[in-house]
Amino acid sequence: MEILVATEKPFAQIAIRQIREVTEAAGFKLTVLENYKNRAELLAAVSTADGLIVRSDAVTAEVLDAAKQLKIVIRAGSGYDNLDLASCTAHNVVAMNTPGQNSNAVAELAFLLMLYQIRGGFTGKSGSELRGKTLGLHAFGNVGKYVADIARGFGMDIYAYDPFVSERVMKNNGAKQCLNVGELYLKCQYISIHMPINEITKKSVGYDLIKKMPRNAVLVNTARKELIDEEGLLKIFEERNDISYLSDVEPDCKAILEEKHKGRFIFTNKKMGAQTEESNINAAVAAARQVVEYLNTGKEKYKLNR
Ligand code: 3PG
User: Minimal CA–CA distance to 215: which of 137, 128, 112?
Assistant: First the structure.
């Protein structure tokens, strides 16, 4: 049986070596398609695969139609908005992710963005410090917990809002619970967003929430750009010049921000949150183990589709 790794954005080479060790030790053939430039390459490569490992690569009905032997697809990472789950189910393909494996890398990137901004983008002008600043975690899953962990070391005053996480869990991780999202935005100068994207969360952070934030507010988004209502973001940017937006990946309104609001945003031009050797190894090896285990035993831990 064949396992295909297909990634437009390649893993660190050591991660590929470790996937090879896991899959070949279990007797599977491994094929690697990295850095592919067009869908045709993916469609051709997937045609003989029994298992597929991807990153943010879109696994659509077209891919699944081409994947005649496919039994399982694993998103090596957390967010699975790139997988068409209904289509996976219709094609009898199990879909999984590898939650938590790249969370520390994303959390560290949130701090890189905050530190770069608070030090004035290294322009030589005097900056400020994170110690004592209020930090609000909008969602308290794996990444939110890592951010809280680092924020404690920085001496930040940490709050969290997450309707699915108990006060006890937040307290154990050093965060004070906010009972509603408005309270979080009202209290915190820094807000770091860690929600998954879905029909409810899409565009859920916009004008009404951001305008609640205190002076010199900084909104940090290392999750998905689609969580932000960009019209609302632009509106509040027009009304208040003390707000900054830091984001892992360019927003759609990048050109307007560049034209009108210089110095008030930072973007990575490619999504970089999980782009570390460690998180590549963690997510890749977890994906390899899950695919091997499923193909050998049918174990469905982290199955996403029903
Ligand atoms: C995730 O959802 O796990 C992150 O966004 C990482 O995505 P990537 O594998 O494309 O870097």
Answer: 128
